[in-house]
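Input.
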Amino acid sequence: MDSTRIIAVRHGETAWNVDTRLQGHLDIALNDKGQWQAGRVARALASEPIAAVYSSDLSRAWQTAQAIAVVHGLAVQPEPRLRERAFGHFEGRTFQDIERELPDQAELWRRRDPEFAPAGGGESLLAFRARITEAVANLAARHPAELLVLVAHGGVMDVLYRAATGQELQAPRTWQLGNAYINRMLWTGQGLTLVGWADDTHLDGDDALDEQAAA
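Output.
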């Protein structure tokens, strides 16, 4: 099977990223800086032979994807399976809120318990990983020997990095998941391999918030 090249991009910054407020499936738009970041990503990828742009259907990812797609005369293709992890009752709360109001659940979250799903409809890490890896495999298989752009969220980028490097779900994170970073992978029928990660040269040294400041 021919390999598929993938560029994965986390959405640009939102006001809730700045506030360290968990967004999950809530639909939060880019702030002004996030819109600038989306434009910078689009410029950086302008010469790439992109065959298709797929995006989470949430506004923060969709706006970022549209900036990239328009440069190539492409329409963004919605892929709801690329949404961020569902965080249930965590959504809309800051990290501090969660620690104070839901301490038992916060402990399980901090420990990255793979079976823990936040109350109120949240997803476990196991379910989230299965959703993302299946979606990416399905999309990549549609485009053998082509280059895809996938625009999604911090948690999605984390799953992809772990899948491409063989990291366990509970392994401490040592890699960056900044807003609007460019990440490159290769997909074959055997799965993902890492090509390059956390390229931020297009942001001209501007500090992008890491996923720890809310996805």
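The mean pLDDT is 95.
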